[in-house]
Amino acid sequence: MSDLKHKFWDRLDGINAGLLGTTNELKFVPMSHYADPEQNALWFITANGVDLVSQTESGPKNAIHLIGDEAGKLWARIEGQLELSQDTAKLDEIWNSVAESWFDGGKRDPDIRLLKFSLARAEVWTTNGKLGFLYEISKSKLTGDKPDLGENYNLTF
Questions:
Q1: pLDDT value, residue 140
Q2: 3-class DSSP assignment, residue 153
Q3: Greatest CA span in the chain, whole angstroms?
Q4: Structure confidence at residue 90 (pLDDT)
């Protein structure tokens, strides 16, 4: 794995939500994701009847997941394919108390739907966080140099 991909997955690990939508509708909704670097995927636990589930019932759809998290020092626009999954082993792996609070029947609730988002590419911005930003701005005022506010790069998965 390249250093940039490693940095991406490492920083993504500290972020647990973003905005997800298909390119069909460009209606983005907040969703919690579960990172799976081995499969270059993000997983989402959701419910039957949700728009994203309805849109993917006929097959995979092009989708975008937007992440902006200053504390995680990562901003990203991730593109890929979103599809329904029947992977009960993955559901068992990522199931947690937050997900359980949404479903009365636990992880075998009949309304649970698992979405797999297979990453294709991403544009990524990494930062040094708020303190790093303040330091770089202050330093630039003293030295006249341009501030180093982080990196911007593209990834292909």
A1: 66
A2: strand
A3: 62
A4: 98
CB-based contact 52:22 (threshold 8 Å): yes
| Helices and strands in the chain, H and E counts | 5, 8
The owner of tokens 């500290």 is 14
Rounded distance between C-alpha atoms, residue 95 and residue 122, angstroms: 26
For residue 3, give the H/E element and its range: helix 3-12
Among residues 152, 145, 139, 90, which one has the least CA distance to residue 116?
90
pLDDT tens, residue by residue, 84-135: 999 999 999 999 999 999 999 999 999 999 999 999 999 999 887 656 555 5
Name 28's Cβ contacts closer than 8 Å, sequence gap at least 6: 19, 20, 21, 64, 66
Identify the structural domains of the chain with CATH numbers, from first to last: 3-156 (2.30.110.10)
Cα→Cα distances 52→75, 77, 110, 132, 152, Å? 23, 18, 17, 37, 29
- Amino acid, single-letter form, for residue 140: S
Q: What integer best gives the mean pLDDT of the chain?
A: 90
User: Is the pLDDT score of 38 beyond 90?
Assistant: yes
Per the listing, tokens 């998290």 go with 69
